[in-house]
Give the backbone structure.
Amino acid sequence: IKDRASVYQKIEERIDKMQSKLKCEFLSIYNICKNAGVEPNLANVPLFRAIGLREFFDIDSEHPECVKIEDAIPLIKRNTKRYAKRQETFFKQIEGSIKIDMNESRWYEKLHSIIVHFMESYI
């Protein structure tokens, strides 16, 4: 569990770090499809529906390969934040779900302990 502002800040930072590679990844997949004779679009290539790729089509569905990364980044951030909110809402509805406060200094050890205990119970 983290407060939403903290989650959104981490999303912003992570996307800022990734942005230099996002356009290259998009173009690589786009060109692989073209070279394989597959029309690279949202209908033919489900991978393009992933956050970080579909935004190129949202900006220019006819020529997504020409979209500037600077134009796609705000959409990628917005869509990632929306996805994080949907995840939060989903997990709130699951009875018995284990919540871990990631603001605690030893959250990783707590998570590790829970996983080990779970695995030992079922092995």
About this structure: The helical segments are 4-35, 54-59, 69-92, 107-122. The radius of gyration is 19 Å.
